[in-house]
């Protein structure tokens, strides 16, 4: 369970989050909606340790507030950033192997990836550690994300925006996270890719993964989330079911509609 209590964060001296309290249970998608500048992406970055923050952030009872991003990732937390952060010169396969190691930072290690044996590449753990139960092998990754299979040896910079988003999502799943934080996964994408991402998130939820979805598309949130929260001016202004939000005309008019 992800448990946030009175979380505050910002950039420099400017506070963006003004005390956010939220919970995400295993097997649940919680969508955080709001206009640009509401603090949604800042919330994701604060959870992942990319910003100084105050308050309580706990995952499975363990505090994350004093941990570095790589330490947070190793606790079984996957992160798909708004910027996708695929490494353009690296191939699709090399990007996925980085995810297998539970890191988003390239190193000299990836240069040796092509010379490693297939069993080692296929997800037999990192530095002798056992793989997490949900971890994907390369074969499983290309089977689940079949769009990426024909591009496995292509540099990631050559992929379309939709393919790069799928690569970023697949990379986050390589290490088998129990919690997935997905920031604006559908921005600027074609409807068919949006629908594909919605199906992937729904399948993950059904398998027991806890998902915090930062999203601007109300339609996606209403179709796949079990609970929705609306942010405004760095705080939650609404929390409830998709049905309750659909009936809250005042909330949608004031905090969501352009």
Please give a structural write-up.
It contains ten helices and ten strands. It is an alpha/beta fold and 258 residues long. The chain has a domain of 59 residues. The strands form two sheets. The protein has a six-stranded mixed β-sheet, with helices on both faces. A hairpin with a 2-residue loop joins strand 9 and strand 10. The longest helix is centred in the C-terminal third of the chain and has 16 residues. The chain is globular and about 50 Å long.
The portion of residues assigned to helices is 25-40%
Distance between termini?
33 Å
- Work out the number of β strands: 10
Q: Helical region count?
A: 10
Largest sheet: 6 strands, mixed
Secondary-structure element order, N to C: EEEHEEHEHHHHEHEHEEHH
Radius of gyration: 18 Å
Which parts are unreliable, with pLDDT below 50 for 5 consecutive residues or more?
103-130
Proportion of beta-strand residues: 15-25%
Instruction: Give the neighbour order of strands across the main sheet.
Output: 6-7-8-3-9-10
- Structural class comes to alpha/beta
The mean pLDDT is 89
Provide a brief overview of the structure.
The chain has 258 residues and is an alpha/beta fold. The chain contains 10 helices and 10 strands. Helices cover 31% and strands 24% of the residues.
Secondary-structure topology with pairs:
Layout: E1 2-11, E2 14-24, E3 29-33, H1 40-47, E4 53-59, E5 62-63, H2 69-73, E6 77-80, H3 92-100, H4 118-121, H5 138-144, H6 161-173, E7 179-183, H7 191-206, E8 210-214, H8 218-224, E9 227-232, E10 235-240, H9 242-246, H10 249-255
Parallel strand pairs: 3-8, 3-9, 6-7, 7-8
Antiparallel strand pairs: 1-2, 1-4, 4-5, 9-10
């Amino acid at each position: 369970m992800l448990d946030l209590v009175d979380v505050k964060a910002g950039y420099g001296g400017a506070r963006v989050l003004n005390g956010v309290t939220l919970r995400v249970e295993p097997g649940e998608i919680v969508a955080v909606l709001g206009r640009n500048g509401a603090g949604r992406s800042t919330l994701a970055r604060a959870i992942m340790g990319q910003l100084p923050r105050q308050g309580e952030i706990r995952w499975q009872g363990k505090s994350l507030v004093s941990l570095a991003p790589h330490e947070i990732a190793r606790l079984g937390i996957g992160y798909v950033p708004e910027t996708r952060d695929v490494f353009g010169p690296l191939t699709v396969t090399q990007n996925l192997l980085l995810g297998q190691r539970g890191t988003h930072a390239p190193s000299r290690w990836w240069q040796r990836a092509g010379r490693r044996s297939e069993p080692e590449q296929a997800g037999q753990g990192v530095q002798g550690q056992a793989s997490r139960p949900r971890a994907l092998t390369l074969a499983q990754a290309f089977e689940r994300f079949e769009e990426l299979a024909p591009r496995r040896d292509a540099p990631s910079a050559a992929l379309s925006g939709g393919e790069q988003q799928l690569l970023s999502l697949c990379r986050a799943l390589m290490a088998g996270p129990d919690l997935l934080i997905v920031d604006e996964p559908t921005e600027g994408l074609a409807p068919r890719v949006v629908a594909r991402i919605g199906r992937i998130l729904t399948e993950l939820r059904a398998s027991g993964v806890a998902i915090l979805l930062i999203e601007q598309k109300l339609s996606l949130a209403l179709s796949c989330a079990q609970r929705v929260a609306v942010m405004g001016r760095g705080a939650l202004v609404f929390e409830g079911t998709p049905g309750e939000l659909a009936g809250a005309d005042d909330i949608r008019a004031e905090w969501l509609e352009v």
